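Give me the fold.
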Amino acid sequence: RPPRSTPIYSSAASDVYKRQVMSIQKTINEIEDLFSIFDDPKEKFAQLMDIAKEYEGIPEKDRTEKTKISGCASQAWVIGEKKREVYIFRCDSDALIVKGLLSLLCKVFSGHKSEEIRSIDHSKILESVGLSGSISVQRTNGFASAVNKIHKISV
């Protein structure tokens, strides 16, 4: 098996944050392992849609302009709340592939502190799970917008 892609924390993160981020890296590695069994991008998309179907999403009442992800071609939302020292995120979309991608983000970022969340280099997440070259530019931009919104929520 080829070596894992470069860690996704930014090189500017301190050693303390690097240790904390490793728990996020571990989650990303688990997702990468799940997707690595598929060679064909179509199979990866099918897996994303299966994840989306199993993911609860958010209630209709929470799908507001405030929670909407701008820059996403589909209708998509993210909400986050701080519980003690960590944030919990929930996401949803009207498109299964987008909902699947967002559910991966929620899994990666939920349960972590603000510093950990904001130290993640979002451009590496899709690469780490093997989807960077498989989704459209529009979806890639929407994915980046979702990560930016999560970063803003966690300030």
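The CA atoms of residues 14 and 109 lie 19 Å apart.
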